[in-house]
Amino acid sequence: MRAFREAVEAGDPAAVEALLAEDVVFSSPVVFKPYRGRAITAAILREVVEVFEDFRYVREIGEPGGPEQALVFRARVGDRELTGCDFLHVNEDGLIDDFMVMVRPLSGAQALAEAMGARFERIAKEAEARSA
Fold first, then answer.
1. Mean pLDDT throughout 18-41?
2. Please, what is the angle between helix 38-51 and helix 106-117, to 10°?
């Protein structure tokens, strides 16, 4: 999804959030249970932008304009390099309704889990405030 990639690369969290369906399901690479809803997904993505260093998309997979897209990225968390992929499904309204992230290697995933875990209380409070 070109619009999502451009919003992420521009560092525009409002544009990213505008592309999320109200009922989006976000599957984290480091948490078993998926998160449901725009508010929590947007809050998580705002924090990930701060955790990832040197983030860049390196490849797009999928038919342009199709409902299924994959965006391969590279980033760093502290001294850990990682490669990941955002798997996106776009609904009939053109909004992301399914968002799954995978990362490798394990040491990168562990660094990401630790960094995001330290921020999760703030993420939950922000999501709750935005949902109210």
1. 95
2. 110
